[in-house]
């Protein structure tokens, strides 16, 4: 997925059959981890161009989920 550097992202959960207890988002680049500040369900991508791996950790009342993907900042 491609994004603009510093872009604001809102995470939307279509199936709201759970209660969110916590959400954390990190990006990785060359074995270096950057924890992003999350405000409810929003965060901003880094301002530096490049390829990153994104890690989203969701804690809910029905268990935990982790999402991993590749993103490119242009």
Notes on the protein architecture:
By secondary structure, the chain is mainly β. Helices cover 0% and strands 61% of the residues. It contains no helices and seven strands. The strands form two sheets. Strands 1-7-6-3-4 form a five-stranded mixed sheet, with no helix packed on it. A hairpin with a 2-residue loop joins β6 (50-60) and β7. The radius of gyration is 13 Å and the shape is elongated. The termini are close together.
Strand order of the largest sheet: 1-7-6-3-4
Strand tally is 7
* Element-by-element helix/strand order: EEEEEEE
Question: What's the mean pLDDT score?
Answer: 92
Helix content: under 10%
Secondary structure topology:
Elements: E1 2-3, E2 8-10, E3 20-29, E4 32-36, E5 42-44, E6 50-60, E7 63-73
Parallel strand pairs: 1-7
Antiparallel strand pairs: 2-5, 3-4, 3-6, 6-7
Keywords for this structure?
0% helix, elongated, 74 residues, mainly beta, 7 strands
Could you give a short description of this structure?
Helices cover about 0% and strands about 60% of the residues. It is mainly beta and about 70 residues long.
């Amino acid at each position: 997925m491609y994004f603009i550097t510093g872009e604001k992202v809102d995470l939307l959960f279509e199936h709201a059959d759970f209660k969110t207890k916590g959400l954390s988002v990190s990006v990785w680049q060359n074995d270096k981890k950057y924890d992003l500040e999350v405000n409810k369900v929003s965060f901003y991508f880094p301002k530096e161009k490049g390829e990153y791996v994104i890690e989203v950790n969701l804690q809910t009342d029905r268990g935990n989920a982790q999402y991993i993907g590749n993103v490119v900042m242009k």
